[in-house]
Amino acid sequence: MKRLFSILLAGSVLATPLAMAAKANAAPVPHNEAIVEKKKVVVHKGHWVKGRHLSAADRHRAKPVDYRHYHLKAPPHGYHWVRIGNNFLLVGITSGLISKVETAH
């Protein structure tokens, strides 16, 4: 019985490197293959989204407003409120980044 156990143990120890080498040479099979599709983001005119930048044309037509007159919160340092159409936007002065969007009632 001990002899049989020794033979099986030696066989498994010798066979392990061969099995690992065969596994390494096999072509990898992807389990979760990612499919990337191009998406086009369309922003409708007058539809403002936080985190986007105002275009140069929009920055020229945006009119700065007095936030107190429209009961808006005071802008943080480096930001100002502008009005485009019926929307008030809290925009970064230098970057044009939209931080907040309020609609006039």
UniProtKB/TrEMBL annotation:
Signal peptide: 1-21
Source organism (scientific name): Rhizobium calliandrae
Classification lineage: Bacteria, Pseudomonadati, Pseudomonadota, Alphaproteobacteria, Hyphomicrobiales
Keyword Signal set for record: yes
Keywords on record: Signal
InterPro entries: RcnB
One Pfam short name: RcnB
Organism superkingdom: Bacteria
Protein name according to UniProt: RcnB family protein
